[in-house]
TrEMBL record:
Signal sequence coordinates: none
Complex and partners: Heterodimer with SRP9; binds RNA as heterodimer. Component of a signal recognition particle (SRP) complex that consists of a 7SL RNA molecule of 300 nucleotides and six protein subunits: SRP72, SRP68, SRP54, SRP19, SRP14 and SRP9.
Source species taxonomy: Eukaryota, Apusozoa, Apusomonadida, Apusomonadidae, Thecamonas
Protein name: Signal recognition particle 14 kDa protein
Its biological purpose: Component of the signal recognition particle (SRP) complex, a ribonucleoprotein complex that mediates the cotranslational targeting of secretory and membrane proteins to the endoplasmic reticulum (ER). SRP9 together with SRP14 and the Alu portion of the SRP RNA, constitutes the elongation arrest domain of SRP. The complex of SRP9 and SRP14 is required for SRP RNA binding.
One example of a Gene Ontology biological process annotation: SRP-dependent cotranslational protein targeting to membrane
Keyword set, alphabetical order: Cytoplasm, Ribonucleoprotein, RNA-binding, Signal recognition particle
Secreted is among the record's keywords: no
Amino acid sequence: MPRLSNDEFLAEMGKLLRKAGEKDNPSSVSLTMKHVVEEVVQNKGKKNENVVEEARCLIRARSGKCKISTVVRPRNRVQFSIAYSTILKSNLKSLSSH
């Protein structure tokens, strides 16, 4: 499962959701989010090199055999969240409201 850039992931997720919503071939899409802490080396190769832990969000989407994932960094969180919610709203019209 390759890690895609945030924009590539959103485009592929939109395709998965559209494909799953087809009336002649309905399927399900599973979306998961996971908090990940990774160590980031700052000033690599210099005297004042230090390791900082950075909290990131791993997001995965799966439909059948197709699996995609991306990692969202804190500085991209707001921009990604807006695009993510827009894609979900536009592609989840088949859900019934109660």
